[in-house]
Amino acid sequence: MQTDIDPRSLIGRKAFDRHGTKIGTVDEVYLDDATGEPEWAAVRTGLFSRDAFVPLEPSELADEGLRIPFDRKLIKDAPDFGVGRHLSPEQELQLYHHYRLDISSPASDAVSSAGDKDFGRIAGSED
Questions:
Q1: How many angstroms separate the CA atoms of 25 and 11, rounded?
Q2: Would you write out the chain's pLDDT as a tens digit for each of its 127 residues?
Q3: Strand 51-55 and strand 38-44: pairing?
Q4: 42 by DSSP, 3-state: which?
Q5: Helix, strand, coil % over all residues of the chain, rounded to 5
Q6: Between the N and C ends of the chain, which has fewer C-beta atoms within 10 Å?
Q7: What is the pTM of this model?
Q8: Cα dist. 68→6, 61, 110 in Å?
Q9: What angle do CA 14, 5, 42 make, to 5 degrees?
């Protein structure tokens, strides 16, 4: 994803799966504490549904919203950690495994070397 985009501008955008099917609306954006880059988004999947965490890399920002290159079912089946708090390194690893993403990326290296440090702070929040 483009890293020069203000993560707060993602909030409220529609999110679509790899086929262009609407999944929901971006509720929150989580930044990697080590890099400050947007890493995960929480997508509200329906009026009475929960938020699903989706990776912002390799997602793309398009005119119509956020296009996530995974199937809707995989996204809806993502682990549910609740929103509004940090993602722990273990939770991030669960998400990497769920989406079968390469966990040797710089962000995951920071997770493995940080010990108990929290990651995935919410954009716009102060620590």
A1: 8
A2: 555 667 888 999 999 999 999 999 999 999 888 888 899 999 998 777 789 999 999 999 888 899 999 999 999 999 989 888 889 889 999 999 999 998 764 444 444 444 444 445 666 665 5
A3: antiparallel
A4: strand
A5: 20, 30, 50
A6: C
A7: 0.77
A8: 18, 9, 24
A9: 40
